[in-house]
Design a protein that fits this description.
heterodimer, A: alpha/beta, Gyrase A, domain 2, four-stranded antiparallel beta sheet, 14 helices, 32% helix, B: alpha/beta, Rossmann fold, six-stranded mixed beta sheet, two-stranded antiparallel ribbon, 10 strands, disordered N terminus
Chain lengths: 424, 266
């Protein structure tokens, strides 16, 4: 018998939101499913952002193995920002594990530009050019007809939240029609479909979820109602022998304040900037450390940067100083930093040398920022109300042996292993 | 060594194709101009113009002045104008506010060029892009019409033959790309074979050199000991860093940054 597997991704949805909305009857289909599988909190990647987390989900590997540490990186031996894409991924995603199986992969973040596979692949955020976002290219005409868009234009949220919500719905519906089309047209073994509007919605309108009187409260709930309908629809399309995985890459919570880490490093004399230059080219020879989004700290090593000044023998002391100083950041008598990891504690693999030396984990509500042109430590975000969380992404698995293959405390790195053990 | 020994058959072929395109452009358009960035590619282009038209560059050369170029580039410009007798027109780029961050300043080079083209009524612009530079340019053609807003409608391109008969509808001017088929190593081999002057920033100084030259404050050098064209060619044949890696201003990057800023990054 040919058993199928469906993976539904819901970008940025926290466990507590799925649990809450299903209990309240807003996600009735998922409520019914909950008792038929294993539903657990899942730990996101470090740092807990989509590019790193989805890369771990699809490869079953650690950031120091797959090589993606953030949306941004610096080009080796320069201060120039680079944006690692699917070409930078060092470990093969699961759809290259078994060439005899056929895959349909829709809207997984950080999988642009696409590469040939046995099946269909439409990449997700950040896709630049449709021609390179779709395999095979014979599908391009159909996608145009379905009005498929690779991403919702989040810029509209600044001018009108209503317009943003309208575009979010349009993009979502086109994507749903695309999944329906490919579901029927392709003879697939594994089907993966990711909702990403959820993450945008939560970033911009988290307050509309928590505040029942918010003018967009109902619109917020409606989005998840629609997600739930599709979960129900998909579940109805598969048989009891097939497997269903529902997961998210990270959680979300209300932002209390943004915290500009590079500004803090300047104030505490770890970072010196030459303001006549641009972006990270501002980093001067005197600098000992700097930060990239969201809480990645890099030593300004002599061996790695054009003006690098940190010598190998001084690394230990500087890391100790940094750890002590950073753990003291306070906002209204509240500690901002919950935990500081050194890279060897959390990372393993061939790319370890490129990993950030320290990664900061924040206490609830603090959004750590790596922008380099800020002149205040704390800042209310002008647009965003939701920020990512580490501990409470979602994992739901429905299969005959789900209770045996889902670890008690799963992380995003477990997905590929679970996938390989389904129905065996 | 005579010129014949270093102008190998590949370079001769590249040169012939480019010269053919340049001559056609001169014949078909009323008022062409050539864009000159002072970089290695557009300087090779000036040399090809000289060869195509009996030692003279018969078109005005347009340089977009950012006010933020390297001092070495300004010196190089003066020297070239004097020694090669170039009819140089300057398009002065103005600073603009970045609409997204509201802080970082950008330069409006396209706007400056557009104004100059309109003022001087140029109908064709010869541009020294190469297909191997990056993804977006891979779709370009030798002849590429631009609409009034400078947009490149790549789905509505004329057939890829130069002696087209169709008119370009709605085109404000047409871009001609005679170097499309060259690669980075070709440019250096040709520069060497023809003794073409080179901006000194391309050569290593204190262990670093520039591979692609943008503004002084947004272009970074990379580690290199290549002090001659031969050493550059040798280096290029082994490196896996992309040519424009040091350029912060590329369009794809701008787009990615915009997308990330919308979500609160950077």
């Amino acid at each position: 018998m040919n058993r199928k597997t469906v993976i539904i991704g819901i970008d940025g949805v926290p466990y507590k939101l799925m649990d809450d909305l299903s209990n309240k009857g807003i996600m009735p289909y998922f409520q019914k499913l909950k008792s038929k599988g294993i539903f657990r909190k899942m730990r996101s990647s470090i740092p807990h952002i989509s590019s790193v987390s989805w890369s771990s989900i699809i490869t079953g590997s650690n950031p120091a193995q797959h090589g993606i540490f953030g949306f941004t990186d610096l080009i080796p031996n320069t201060y120039t920002l680079s944006f690692p894409d699917f070409n930078a991924l060092k470990v093969k995603p699961f759809w290259h594990h078994n060439e005899n199986k056929k895959y349909v992969i829709i809207n997984v973040p950080s999988t642009y530009p696409v590469k040939p596979l046995n099946g269909v692949h439409i990449s997700g955020f950040i896709s630049l050019d449709m021609d390179k976002a779709v395999y095979p290219s014979s599908l391009l005409g159909k996608l145009e007809e379905l009005q498929y868009e690779v991403d919702v234009d989040a810029g509209t949220v600044r001018t009108s939240k209503s317009l943003f919500l309208k575009k979010l719905t349009q993009t979502n519906e086109a994507r749903i029609n695309t999944y329906r089309y490919l579901w029927e047209k392709e003879k697939w073994d594994v089907f993966m479909f990711v909702f990403t509007g959820s993450d945008r919605l939560e970033h911009f309108l988290w307050n509309a979820y928590e505040d029942k009187t918010h003018e967009h409260h109902q619109a917020f709930l409606n989005y998840f109602k629609r997600v739930d309908e599709i979960i129900g629809e998909i579940n109805q399309r598969i048989s009891d022998n097939d497997s269903l995985i529902i997961l998210s890459d990270h959680g979300m919570e209300q932002i209390k304040t943004n915290v500009n880490i590079n500004y803090f490093l300047e104030q505490t004399k770890f970072l010196y900037l030459d303001k006549s230059k641009k972006e990270y080219n501002q980093i001067t020879k005197k600098s000992l450390a700097f930060s990239l989004d969201p809480g990645r700290i890099y030593l300004h090593r002599e061996s790695r940067y054009p003006h690098g000044s940190v010598k190998e023998q001084d690394e230990k002391n500087i890391i100790q100083d940094l750890t002590e100083t950073l753990s003291n950041i306070e906002y209204n008598n509240e500690k901002v930093i919950k935990k500081i990891y050194q890279k060897q504690e959390i990372y393993h693999g061939t790319e370890l040398e490129r990993a950030p030396d320290l990664v900061l984990i924040e206490n609830p509500g603090f959004s750590l920022r790596g922008a380099i042109e800020k002149n205040t430590l704390f800042e209310q975000d002008p647009i965003l109300t939701g920020k990512h969380t580490l501990e409470d992404s979602v994992l739901f698995v429905k299969s005959e042996n789900a209770d045996k293959i889902v670890p008690p405390s799963p992380t995003v790195e477990d997905m590929v292993s679970i996938l390989s053990k389904l129905n065996k | 060594m005579t010129r014949g020994e270093i102008m190998n058959s590949r370079l001769t072929e590249l040169e012939e194709k480019s010269i053919f395109i340049l001559r056609e452009a001169k014949a078909k358009f009323k008022k062409p101009a050539v864009l000159w960035s002072m970089g290695k590619d557009s300087t090779v282009m000036l040399m090809l113009c000289k060869k195509a038209f009996l030692g003279n560059v018969p078109f005005p050369a347009i340089n977009i002045d950012s006010g933020r170029d390297f001092p070495e580039s300004y010196e190089f410009k003066e020297k070239m104008v004097k020694e090669w007798g170039i009819n140089l027109l300057i398009a002065q780029a103005e600073h603009k506010k970045d609409a997204i961050s509201g802080t970082a300043e950008g330069l409006n080079k396209a706007e400056a060029l557009k104004k100059l083209l309109e003022k001087e009524k140029f109908d064709a612009l010869i541009v020294s892009i190469r297909r191997d530079e990056h993804g977006v340019r891979a779709k370009e053609r030798y002849v590429s019409p631009r609409d009034k807003n400078f947009r490149w409608d790549f789905e509505n391109q004329p057939p890829e033959i130069f002696n087209y008969t169709s008119e370009f509808k709605d085109a404000s001017h047409v871009r001609i790309h005679p170097l499309l088929h060259w690669n980075e190593v070709d440019i250096w081999e040709y520069s060497k074979a023809n003794n073409i002057p080179v901006n000194p920033l391309y050569f290593a100084k204190n262990g670093k050199r520039y591979r692609s030259i943008g503004y002084a404050d947004s272009t970074v050098p990379f580690k290199s000991n290549a002090k001659t064209i031969d050493e550059i060619i040798k280096e290029l044949k082994t490196t896996d860093i992309s040519e424009r890696a040091g350029r912060a201003q590329d369009k794809e990057k701008e787009y990615v940054m915009q997308r990330l800023r919308e979500l609160g990054y950077m």
